[in-house]
Write a structure and sequence with these properties.
Distance between the termini: 23 Å
CATH class: Alpha Beta
Strand order of the largest sheet: 3-2-1-10-9-8-6-4
Number of helices: 12
Largest sheet: 8 strands, parallel
Shape: globular
CATH topology: TIM Barrel
Helix content: 40-55%
Mean pLDDT: 97
CATH architecture: Alpha-Beta Barrel
CATH superfamily: Divalent-metal-dependent TIM barrel enzymes
Order of helices and strands: EHEHHEHEEHEEHEHHEHEHHH
Low-confidence stretches: none
Number of domains: 1
Amino acid sequence: MQGTFRFSFGPWNIHEGADPFGPEVRCTIPFNKKLEAYKKLGFDGVQFHDDDAVPNLNEKSCAQIASEATALKKTLTDHGLTAEFVAPRMWFDPHTIDGGYTSNSAECRQYALDRTKRTIDIANALGTRNIVLWLAREGTYIREAKDPVLATERIAEAIQMMLDYDRNIRVMIESKPNEPVDHAYIPTIGHAIAMGLMTSDPSRVGCLIETAHALLANLAPSDEMGFAMAHKKLWSVHLNDQNGLKFDQDLTFGAVDPRRAMNQVRVLDKHGFGNNGEWVGLDVKVMRTQKEGADLKHLEYSRKIFLRLLEISRSLDDSVIDGLTSERDYEELNYYILNAMLKG
């Protein structure tokens, strides 16, 4: 069974180049200009944080939020675009310094729950049932500062609240082992899938796997994807690349390890990813050193690399692979794969 692939990215993937050690190096591209770029680059889906869709969300009433989100839905339609998901972005807010759902402050935990409800409202207005949870500050710098049992239970309670608030939505947990906190809760996809079992409706709790996040856990992204697909829980991906176990780099897909990238493409394709409407999300950041005016190539090339690796993967002769596997001639199999990639 072959996959069906359509592509999405988020407005944050087009940025000014600021990092913790330096300011912006490129001018801001207005939001509507970003939307205009999607189709030109071959993308059809838009990933949103809640405040990408409705800026200054905390300062607005529910009616204002609904109005702005509805207007954005029309803008997306005019551009021929679809909202893939909406995610609550709480890690910039003063209420979430110590986490949101796992904060030691009851007031801050309530803020996180209320903010998440507004995220769901925005998703409904944009026409998507997908809510992504990247549990950014749900962890600690000091292990003794939080009880891991209680923290896990609080995250489960937050997910249950979401499922109860809207019977149509589904929650996709995007796990990550570190950054911005040292000790993150729900660090791997196995943890994410298990969270669903703590709710009343595990069928609506799945996951989004990011290449870099799997690598930061010292795991193979394609194996993580395979694990999730075996559980019927891989509902989206964030493809990128990563140099080693450091901060989340979000490099162009396949830029560091093309073979590792092909294995991700291959497992998705062989097991029919996208045939149920899943998107291939690209969460890649332009290099800070890239000059203004040429700062969308990371998106264009990530998509092109995916499609080229797909061609190479589909060109492989499964009977040859099966024969070499049966003979246990893995050195020959290794060369067969490498030779196909080098010819490509």
